[in-house]
Specification:
Elements lengths: L6 E6 L5 E2 L13 E7 L2 E6 L4 E5 L5 E6 L8 E7 L3 E6 L6 E5 L2 H7 L13 H8 L6 H6 L9 H11 L12 H20 L40 E5 L2 E5 L6
Parallel strand pairs: 2-9
Antiparallel strand pairs: 1-7, 3-4, 4-5, 5-9, 6-8, 7-8, 10-11
The protein binds a DNA duplex through helix 4.
Length: about 250
DNA sequence: CGTGGCCCCTGTGGGC
DNA sequence: TGCCCACAGGGGCCAC
């Protein structure tokens, strides 16, 4: 979408949303986007002169690519204007997300990505077993812990656990080998389907093209507490596990 | 070290 | 109708 475009200038409307070395705060001005990288939930724009900017959307953040001149929505914190008259905008009402500057992509990998677990979109059974270790914490909390596995959020944790028929409260260290395999497979599958669907629009999330994510329509348990389990018909249960709303089937997920 | 709880922030929807 | 409060898709930090 932006590959190859050259950044004419970057404007920061809220300084505290941008973190990292101030020497890199030109934010790729003058550079063409050589590549766009991702690890877990973090994105990185890499410039053709070696510069690097990473973006995390947090809970309410989004990136949009629009024609220059289209009215900027509230909470537009950073705007990159390209030489071909488009704008990339970082918009984030709650500001749980942010933009980080780095000397280069190696610096980003060393400083931040090295502390993240393996990418969830390609997680293997062996990687999942390593993440679980002998932990007594719930499997749900392990799925949400980006230091252990990178890229799973609350919705997709619940959907993956339901597909695997594993209780969210189950101590992570107690999973069996077949369960590691099943859960890894469902995590990959749920994320692949969600990405193809453009993500989940619960309230106001939009894709960079302004479209609503359609995964919400095909989710099986998230946001459906009290509704019948799609598999057995028993009412879906809900509680707070790992400080997050969690929905599961108490019959199917033991 | 592992774990769980609290807090950051703003917008929205439901209940009264 | 309108107001207020609980809650929300994430994750850093702190105390234990």
């Amino acid at each position: 979408m932006l590959g190859g475009a050259r950044i004419a200038r970057a404007a920061v409307n809220r300084q505290d949303v941008v973190r990292g070395p101030s020497a890199s705060r030109k934010l790729l001005s003058g550079q063409a986007i050589a590549s766009v990288e991702r690890h877990g939930k973090q994105l990185a724009l890499v410039g053709d002169a070696g510069g690097c900017v990473s973006v995390h959307l947090g809970m309410s953040g989004r990136l949009e690519v629009v024609e220059k001149g289209s009215p900027a929505p509230p909470h537009t914190h950073v705007v990159w204007t390209t030489e071909d008259s488009r704008q990339l905008r970082f918009i984030d009402p709650r500001r749980f997300g942010g933009v980080w500057t780095h000397r280069d992509i190696d610096d980003l990998r060393a400083a931040r990505w090295s502390r993240l677990g393996p990418d969830a979109a390609t997680i293997t059974a062996a990687q999942l077993r390593t993440a679980c270790g002998n932990r007594t914490a719930s499997i749900k909390s392990v799925l949400l812990n980006q230091h252990l596995i990178a890229g799973i959020g609350n919705i997709y944790a619940d959907e993956s656990l339901f597909g695997s028929r594993i209780s969210p409260q189950r101590p992570a260290g107690s999973l069996t080998q077949p369960q590691h395999a099943a859960l890894a497979r469902h995590v990959r599958r749920v994320l692949a389907i969600a990405i193809r669907a453009g993500g989940s629009t619960i309230r106001d999330y939009r894709t960079p093209d302004g479209e609503r994510g359609s995964y919400t329509a095909i989710r099986l348990v998230y946001g459906r507490a009290g509704e019948p389990c799609p598999s057995c018909g028993a009412p879906l249960a809900s509680d707070q596990t790992a400080s997050r709303t969690t929905v599961w089937c108490p019959i199917c997920q033991q």
